[in-house]
Amino acid sequence: MSRSQILSKIRETTDNLKEKAAYPDYDTSVMHSAVKLTEPDLWKSFSANFKAVNGRAMDCVAQLIEFLDGNNQRTGYCDPDLFDSIGSQLVAAGLTVETSYDRDRYDDYQFGITRATGAIAESGSLIIDDFKTSQRLAALSPWVHVGVLKKDEILRTIPDAITAFGDAPNIIWCTGPSKTADVEGILIEGVHGPGEQIALLV
Fold first, then answer.
1. What confidence tier does 19 reach under pLDDT thresholds 50, 70, 90?
2. Is the pLDDT confidence value at 134 over 90?
3. Which residues contact 149 (CB under 8 A, 6 or more apart)?
4. What share of the chain is helix, strand, coil (3-state, %, to 5)?
5. Could you tell me which residues come within 8 angstroms of residue 97 by beta carbon, excluding any fewer than 6 positions away?
6. Mean of the per-residue pLDDT values for the chain?
7. Who's near 118: CB < 8 A, 6+ residues apart?
8. Cα separation of 32 and 30, whole Å?
9. What is the pLDDT of residue 139?
């Protein structure tokens, strides 16, 4: 059976599903880690938990410039909607920033700056979806990914994030840089995605 035939059969089957199944009824108060939410300020809780999984939380573009320049990450992509507020400052600092992502040149991009849909304070996770992220590949293929979010987009718990899924067909939770410990239990970061995950608060 060919790929197109397989996908056609999947579409036929899923087209009949008019509504999503309801979430199971459960007590959300026992479904999250209270010890990871000791700060009343959700940005502070998120930052601490994001740092615990080797992510980097930043609250100004100057910090981002210092990090990228100091690590010789000088060429990248920026969501066109973020260029005036973020990309232009990187260009002024001498970095090369493109606002269209060329899939054939994915190796040329050392960083990618995209909108994050939000974040989860409890787990220190950035949320990326197909509605707000201009180029998903720009969030997944460069060594450095910068997820840009606003303070009011930070959700307190994982159950809150599940409830807020909405209709996006593709949702990714980035809990720090990509990592695996499949080989002999040795933790390696940046194997199948960014080796540096940055959350930038605007």
1. confident
2. no
3. 115, 116, 117, 118, 119, 126, 199, 200, 201, 202
4. 35, 20, 40
5. 75, 76, 77, 78, 83, 87, 90, 91, 113
6. 90
7. 126, 127, 149, 153, 154, 155, 161, 164
8. 6
9. 92
| Structure tokens given for 176 | 């720090």
Instruction: Give 51's contacts (C-beta < 8 A, 6+ positions apart).
Output: 57, 124
Produce one character per residue of 44-75: b if its CB has 16 or more CB atoms within 10 Å, e if not. ebbbbbbeebbbbbbeebeebbebbeeeebee
What is d(CA 82, CA 126) in angstroms, rounded to the nearest whole number? 17
Pull the structure tokens for residue 41.
């300020």
Quote the pLDDT of residue 169. 80
Q: What 8-state DSSP symbol labels residue 41?
A: S
Checking phi first, is residue 9 left (phi over 0); if not, alpha (psi -120 to 50) or beta? alpha
C-alpha span between 143 and 135 (Å, rounded) = 15
Could you give the 3-state DSSP secondary structure of residue 119? strand
Is 97 within 8 Å of 87 (Cβ atoms)? yes
Residue with tokens 């910090």: 63
Ordered structural domains, the chain, with CATH: 41-174 (3.40.50)
Q: Are 43 and 151 in contact (CB under 8 A)?
A: yes
Strands (DSSP E) found in 12-107: 56-58, 75-78, 96-98
- Taking the C-alpha atoms of residue 11 and residue 3, their distance in angstroms, rounded to an integer, is 12
- The confidence score (pLDDT) of residue 58 equals 98
